Amino acid sequence: MASLQIATTLNSLPPQTMTRSLPPNSSGSARSHSLPPRNLSVPRREAMALIFAAPIISGIGFRDTALAQPTVGLREYIDSFDGYSFKYPQNWIQVRGAGADIFFRDPYVLDENISVELSSPSSSNYKSVEDLGPPEEAGKKVLKQYLTEFMSTRLGVRRESSVLSTSSRVADDGRMYYQVEVNIKSYANNNELAVMPGDRVTRLEWDRRYLSVLGVENNQLYELRLQTPENVFVEEEYDLRQVMDSFRVNKVSA
């Protein structure tokens, strides 16, 4: 009975207030704020935001451990020596020695990056991106190049790939660009040395989207490459397409 009376008394109390003294020159001597009921459960999205000081979108699944940030703004990169420019998420970091002419990656999603590749000026003589054929033909060449780069000598590795879309556009600089999107999935056995087939279970290693923009200038073929896990692409598609549309090739003075 005593417990019931205490509970009844607590429920009848007014909302807790917090009084904060104001400076002497303020119009009032005190100000009160009603404190709303406290919610002790913190959503995972908000918890991660406290860690990285910005809202973070969590990737789905273990194989692509992705913590993708939402729109953070774009920064322009200009290479006046080689003759190209593009925009990239301003929180991405440059990685040197990656083999490309320039390489940036997301600091949180390690599978997400952007790079630019150039054909050799001494061994190429491109006049237009149409030298690659129509966009559909260029898409096949891009996919073949990706699969060649990702060839693996591991036992039990299998790749599934497809060209998702190809298109051409004339940008505001008057030049034509091709855009190619492909998907590649990699599967591998969890125990590649197992003797019995039942002991070799195939699992999905990664599922990625690759977006390429192709342009020609200075008798060279330029390719902007974007790599991102498929589950992250769903969240960042708007930003990534802005990056693709920003790619330009420029005439280099002799």
TrEMBL record:
Gene3D superfamilies: Mog1/PsbP, alpha/beta/alpha sandwich. It comes from the Eukaryota. GO terms for molecular function: calcium ion binding. GO terms for biological process: photosynthesis. It holds the Pfam family PsbP. Residues 14-38 are annotated as: Disordered. One of its GO terms (cellular component) is extrinsic component of membrane. Residues 73-249 form the PsbP C-terminal domain. Coiled coil: none annotated. Residues 14-32 have a biased composition (Polar residues). This is PsbP-domain protein 1.
